[in-house]
Amino acid sequence: MSETDRSLSTTPRLFVPGALAAGAAISLDAPQSHYLASVMRRQPGDMVRLFNGRDGEWAARVTAVAKKAVALVAEQQSAPQEQVADLWLCAAPLKKGRIDWLVEKACELGVARLQLVTTQRTVVDKPNLERLGAHLVEAAEQSGRTAVPDLPAPLPLERLLKSWPEGRALIFADEKGGEAMAATLARVPAPAAILIGPEGGFTPDERAAIRAHRGAIALSLGPRILRAETAALAAVAVWQALNGH
To answer: Looking at the domain that runs over 3-79, which CATH code has it been given?
Structure first.
């Protein structure tokens, strides 16, 4: 590792919405400016790593510092834009704290989209998308990702199934039993999605509707009863490992 690479690896890393290219001027918002100026004590001339989900990661130099307005200029690309495996995680919203943890870890594991799905037994019917989106950005900043998973508005299960895109496998964790996890996920490449039910599981009618859907694959996660967030992340991690991501 060169001195430049070693220096960049220890610098703050932030998500910014604007375009990134050599010479691009970036003005941080008030919270990010406060973080750099007051928490990280950055000064003009210091380096920061930036990404926007489209242009890879860029090394940027601080040009001006104020508590509510830090300015930088992008100098060189420090990492290319990642190639994201086309895997969706479709999950029922959970209680605050548990859903926050699920969102953070799903981003770290490299999902392309997090689609929240409301079901008959869903406990939380109005998740705070702004808060969850902030968790996704934070997880991407900390994990080194250059892409932030999509977070569209929640969909009822019925609408999700009706609008399902042709050619995308629908793998769902069936607590009543299904195919063995490792062997099944190894033969289901992208584009794919993993569907996890709420804390109380899918109702019999919901299970029947999912099983009847084109391309649906019922998956067993083993003999133990798993929390919804544990089941989701176990399935995502195994799929990523078996499909080379």
So the answer is: 2.40.240.20
